[in-house]
Amino acid sequence: MPDPIEVRKIPIASVTDASGLARLIDDGVLEADRVLAVIGKTEGNGGVNDYTRLLADRAFREVLVERGTRSPAEVARVPLVWSGGTDGVLSPHATVFATLDPASAPRSDEPRLSVGIAMSEVIRPEDIGRPAMVETVAAGVREAMKAAGIDDPADVHYVQTKTPLLTLDTINDARRRGRDVVTEDTLKSMDVSNSTTALGIAVALGEIATPRADQIHRDLSLYSSVASCSSGVELDRAQIVVVGNVRGIGGRYRAGHGVMNDALDADGVWAAIRSTGLDLPERPHPSDLGDRLVNVFIKCEADPRGEVRGRRNIMLDDSDVHWHRQIKACVGGVAASVTGDPAVFVSVAAVHQGPSGGGTVAAIADLG
User: Scanning 55, 146, 176, 327, which has its CA 20 to 30 A from the CA of 302?
Assistant: First the structure.
């Protein structure tokens, strides 16, 4: 049985601010050496050259080294998944997952939060967007499930990943070795990396059969209901964080999930929150949540039809502001109106992550 989990959301006051993590450790809420993973939003442009992810990564790892006993090399293996871009009302923040001494956690036979992590094998640039990457990610997800003590895929409610995307350097590396890449558009490669990873998650959880090469990033009927995939230049393999529930693990927290069917689907966010086990009225209000909701984790995508609920929009035709930023701001506002808190995790590029034009929603609640 894995150790129980403590999970806290902390604000990020500047691009290099990790003081919230330091306070959690100094106040004895969690131990530096027990931190399993961090999932956060940084305030950069969310693109290929978003340096704020690197700055946040360095700041948080420095705290783990300074306040713990793990070496820098050991801390370097802790998954810190940073999603860049806090457009609209979204606020920079991080959600920290750590194990607890079982003797200090509330006992319960009910399902409670468990987290498993894994690092996949190296993903070569020529494999991004292709079946080899699907297989590599699927193997990593299965490994992370074992670490979490989860046998039944139905007990998995959230899989957060960070994978490599293509840069000019990695494209040239593939060329030097006589290989081609799926695209030479580095920004598009972010979407492709995310979508390929999502299919790997779906395969590992038995949501779909192994897709053909021509279905990757094209067959929008294929998706995972729990995948949340991000990509960047920080790594050359998949960082995988599996979040689910295990009976008997103890602790205060429980995960749930749902999907948004489109960018305005606030009911989908409420359904994910309700699935954590929180007792809510039929028509809930943010005030009904009190301090029991830790966070929600949402993927979003501009509908490829260029419309929402029968009304057309111009996100995909806008040459001034990329649709990544527009849809993120839109869904961030919808999510914040549900939770009453702008510090929600909303990430773009959601192909194969929930229904087309919508996205996945995971929630973690404190059941006390």
Answer: 55
